[in-house]
Design brief:
Elements: E1 9-14, H1 19-30, E2 33-41, H2 48-59, E3 64-69, H3 108-123, E4 127-129, H4 145-158, H5 160-168, E5 175-177, H6 185-194, H7 219-230
Parallel strand pairs: 1-2, 1-4, 2-3, 4-5
Helix pairs in contact: 1-6, 4-5, 6-7
Amino acid sequence: MATTSQISKPAIVLLSGGLDSATVLAMAIRDGFRPFAMSFRYGQRHQSELDRANQIVATQNVVEHIIVDIDLGIFGGSALTDDRLVVPKGDTIEAIGKQIPITYVPARNTVFLSFALAWAEVVGARDIFIGVNALDYSGYPDCRPEYISAYERMANLATKVGAEYSSTGLGEPIRIRTPLIAMTKAEIIRTGLDLGVDYSLTFSCYDPVDGQFACGHCDACLLRLRGFEQNGIPDPTCYATS
């Protein structure tokens, strides 16, 4: 719940247009923050999530929403940014491998958080929200708690506000907030539903059919489908296989 010190505090919220980030945005608003939403056009294979991010922002009390243009696709190395690589597909959660998958985008969260950190300094925010998850996820190394802790330490070393806080004790340090990190997908969905999140606006698929229908078989779709199934409700996303 919101505390007196949190009321009306600005915060940067990384918003992809997917299920997790939409939930994080709603949680930040619930906790009394004034959200500045940041999305990325980073060379991903489709723009469906960005379209959904714009729709989500229109339903929430967001101060400002910016879409940052960068091109991580010039490096390749990920099935999300390189059409020559195949997005893994399966029929069950058990099909998701234990190794870091080819859908991992090298250094993506580090890049995203760095842009968010720069904007945070400009708008006077000390809190950055990101929807990483260490339970129901695909094995990405930049979703782990130890990574977030390390980045937060770096952020307070690398910024003017962090340096001032460490030297004088005045003000507040930079905080990387990860409210979903220890939640299952089912718990995330239940939390979002309680907060009124319209999940029909969100899109999670790594490899949509015709750019608009979720495939139903990539890791993101499988995890999402199980989360809704465990809540006993249908997923409002349109699937190509439905």
